[in-house]
Every structure is written in C-alpha cells, then in structure tokens.
Amino acid sequence: MTDGIDSQHERNDPDVDTSGNASDDTSGDSDAEALLDALVEGGVVSIDSETTAVTTTAAFEDTRSVYHDSYADASAERFHGSVAEVFDLDSTDAAAERVDDLGVTREEFVGYLAIDAHLDRSPSTATLARMAHVVSELRPGTPVPDAVVELDDGSYEEFVSSHDRAIVTVWKHHCDPCEAMKDDIEDILAAVPEGVAVGGLDGEDSPKFRRATDIDAAPALALFADGDLREAFTGRATPDRVAAACTEVYEDGDGA
Questions:
Q1: Region labeled Disordered — which residues (predicted)?
Q2: Which single residue of 32, 71, 189, 234 has CA 20 to 30 Å from 127?
C-alpha cells in the first residue's frame, strides 16, 4: 500500500482544461467543459453535486484495472509494441520515440485504452488522448462503503477517542478482498456488538493512521477501546472473524 496523493479536481479547476490554452480563454474553457461533459455522460467520471469534486466512477475503475494489470508492470518493449499497434506506428522504435517526444505515461496509455473500451462510441484519437490526460489526473471516489462512517487522517483520532469502543476498517481501490467484504458488510456489521462504533478510511490516503496502527495492507480492521488500539489484523474479515475479535477485545479483555 503506498501513500496516496489527493488528485481530485473541482469542475472549475484549470487543471481539467487540457486544451493547452490559459484557463481564462473562453474557447479553451468551452472545449474543456465539453470534454468533461462527455466523460460524465459516458460514465467515466462523476461530479459531486455539493462539492463539485470530479472523480472517476467505480464502473470505469473496473475497466481501467484490467488494462492497468496488463501494462503497469509490462516491459518497455511490450509497452512500446502496444503503443505501435494501437496508433498504427511502423515499429516499436518509432513508438518509443513518440512516447519520449510527447511524454506519454503508462497511466495515460492505460486510461486511453480503458476510456475507449468503456464508452459506447469511440471518439477521435485526439479526443481520446485528451480524455486520457484528464482521467490520469483524477482519482476514484472513496472505497469506504456507505454502511460505515467515513474517516481520514484528520478525523479518525477524534472518532476513536469519542467512543468507548470503536472499530476502524481500512479499504483500498482495486482490492478483491475489499470488494468481497463489501458484499458481506451487513453480516459483518451484525457481528459487531451493540454500542461499538464502526468507521472506515481509505488506507492509501491515510499514512498517519497506518503508521499509528502498523497496518500496511487492506482490507484491515483496528479495534479500539477507550481510545487505545487493542488489536489489528489485515486480510478479508468474515463475520465469524469479526465476532471472534470483538469477543476477545471487548468481552474477554478489558475493553468491555
């Protein structure tokens, strides 16, 4: 798990303008707005109605993860070969030169392929490239399920200190065990004793919490009593595993 960087943008953030014009250029703003609208309509990004924060959708992230798995760690030769094939270049050497000249990142290439696959109708190559640049600077929404209180590095300490007993769950994007836990979230929460508050945070965006709890993977659970960490474990948490941990900490231990 690596430290995350908050790259969410607001709708009026000039970083969203990939037209190459200044942010106060009317034509540039119009083009960027149309590009963003197309991404929203295609289900690639969503805009929060209250904060105007722009994030990629969960459905698009599922599509992107397929291409990310294929190209994130691919050799340079395979990466350049794929670029040559997609853009109909003569050779991998030509592709390598083009990548260097334009400063194309693997993340942008993955985004290009994922957007093309995700949209019902393919835009032009130039438009797809601009879309990929925009999307490469965005992040998905929170991986924390709605059923628990969303926390972060700035709020988890108050959460655990203001409850006699509290559990903080740790989540991550592109995490199969996390998704499996979300499918079981109702049963998992039913296994938590009454009176135990349950929150959750994005582990990649919470380095302070990870250092404090020595948690380095997701999913994970940290059980607190009277503001102190009593137990923490990583890996998929089944209802039975959660019930056993709660019994040990809150009934058998001194956290009752």
A1: 1-33
A2: 71
Burial 129-146 (b: 16+ CB within 10 A, else e): bbbbbbbbbbbbbbbbbe
Q: List pLDDT tens digits, range 182-235.
A: 999 999 999 999 999 999 999 999 999 999 999 999 999 999 999 999 999 999
By three-state DSSP, how is residue 223 classified? strand
Count of beta carbons in the 10 Å neighbourhood of residue 220: 25
pTM across the whole model: 0.66
The DSSP element (H or E) to which 239 belongs, if any, is: helix 239-246
Q: What angle do CA 216, 57, 139 make, to 5 degrees?
A: 50
* Sequence letter at residue 66: V
Domains of the chain: 9-136 (no CATH), 149-252 (3.40.30.10)
Half-sphere exposure of 109 (CA within 13 A, CB side): 27
Integer angstrom CA distances of residue 132 from 18, 49, 56, 126, 135: 10, 23, 12, 10, 5
pLDDT in tens, 25-83: 444 556 888 899 999 999 999 998 888 889 999 889 889 988 988 888 889 999 999 99
Q: In whole angstroms, what is the distance from residue 207 CA to residue 213 CA? A: 10
